[in-house]
Design brief:
about 70% helix, globular, binds benzoyl coenzyme A, mainly alpha, about 325 residues, 2 strands
Length: about 325
């Protein structure tokens, strides 16, 4: 779409709240932005299985193990929806996965932190899935049909993920002194990295204005971060947990919590690949990809045979 008139009518469609579908004309830049964002999102879901997956074999009860197994499987499913949705834009699954395995693709910074205790599983469900829901509820109204429809399904599952996390957080916060210490320690370690999930401040976010203009996002990074803070501080206080921020203060006038500054050097360091677990995460994905090679080959062979037998029959 190079013609200015076409670009204008595309913008009108967006402004009228129409959904853009894969075969519709769209500006190259819209397509590129979506491939960038959706593939990063797909990678985040798949890499995001690793921190919690670390605890599957050590879950403290059968019930907790079943919940965790099902949650981690859900994240794999989210990755599949999102890789499929990205394919509708003409980016092959192979191409985007190769970028991840070569260490060239971004994925959410949050998954480059280690899960040191069982309490981290609870806090990931509560905070990380809680942050994801706030962001993804907005994306469920995104202008690109396949992305928004994937988000509707994903949000339903994320909502269960958050509930199971918060239930576990509440239980530990009401448990033995050791359990209370464990859960507070996990909150102390995950709070700030979770705030980083929402991305840089609006003035430092090169993509936000364009994504908002095209109806992909409808809120800015800072607006979403504020919603997260307001909601989760109330939930923390309800179960007697402290938020590790000395500057936290409720502003009666705005009705919002004011909070301290994020360590942006830490954020960019993690995004650039130098976080505590970046190398391990990519190594684990490469190994999983290599171990799954026979499945991909078998599926391709099956599809080839099906095609041959259909051709013979016709
Ligand atoms: N980490 O211009 P900006 C889950 C990058 S998984 C890494 O504001 P944008 C779950 C950004 O990509 C779901 N990189 O970008 C799974 C850009 O770089 P490029 C996680 C980040 O796109 C398992 C640059 O910084 N959710 O829920 O407007 C277990 C400038 O940023 C980050 C998603 O993936 C970051 N945190 O906004 C449990 C949501 N932040 O590409 C749970 C989908 C920024 O220009 N994505 N960058 O080189 C989004 O909503 C948006 O892309 C972002 C960034 C808010 C992340």
């Amino acid at each position: 779409m190079s013609d200015q008139g076409e670009q204008k009518s595309f913008q009108e469609r967006i402004d009228n709240g129409e959904t853009i579908e894969p075969k519709d004309d769209m500006p190259d830049r819209y397509r590129k932005q979506l491939i960038r964002m959706m593939s990063q999102h797909a990678h985040s879901e798949v890499v995001g299985m690793l921190p919690e997956g670390n605890w599957i074999t050590r879950a403290p009860s059968l019930r907790r193990k079943m919940i965790l197994l099902s949650k981690v499987q859900d994240e794999a499913g989210h990755g599949l929806y999102l890789y499929s949705a990205t394919e509708t834009l003409g980016a092959s699954r192979q191409e985007v996965i190769d970028q991840l395995l070569e260490g060239k693709a971004k994925y959410s910074s949050i998954f480059n932190y280690p899960t040191l205790s069982w309490a981290d599983v609870a806090v990931i469900g509560w905070l990380v899935d809680g942050a994801a829901i706030i962001n993804q509820t907005m994306l469920a109204r995104s202008s690109y049909g396949p992305y928004s429809r994937a988000m509707v399904r994903i949000c339903k599952e994320e909502s269960f993920h958050k509930k199971q996390g918060y239930e576990m957080v509440a239980k530990m916060a009401d448990g033995t002194p050791e359990q209370q210490e464990m859960i507070q320690d996990a909150v102390d370690r995950w709070w700030w990295p979770t705030l980083m999930m929402f991305g840089p401040h609006d003035e430092d976010s090169p993509n936000s204005a364009e994504l908002i203009k095209w109806g992909v996002k409808s809120k800015t990074n800072d607006e979403l971060r504020q919603s997260f803070v307001d909601r989760h501080i109330a939930e923390a206080h309800e179960v007697g947990l402290e938020i590790p921020d000395d500057e936290l203060e409720y502003n009666e006038e705005t009705g919002h919590w004011e909070f301290g500054e994020i360590d942006w050097d830490e954020f960019w360091n993690v995004v650039k690949g130098n976080g505590p677990m970046n190398k391990e995460r990519i190594k684990a994905r490469r190994e999983a990809h290599e171990n799954g090679k026979w499945v991909r080959e078998a599926a391709e062979e099956y599809a080839r045979k099906q095609k041959l037998s259909k051709e013979k029959a016709s």
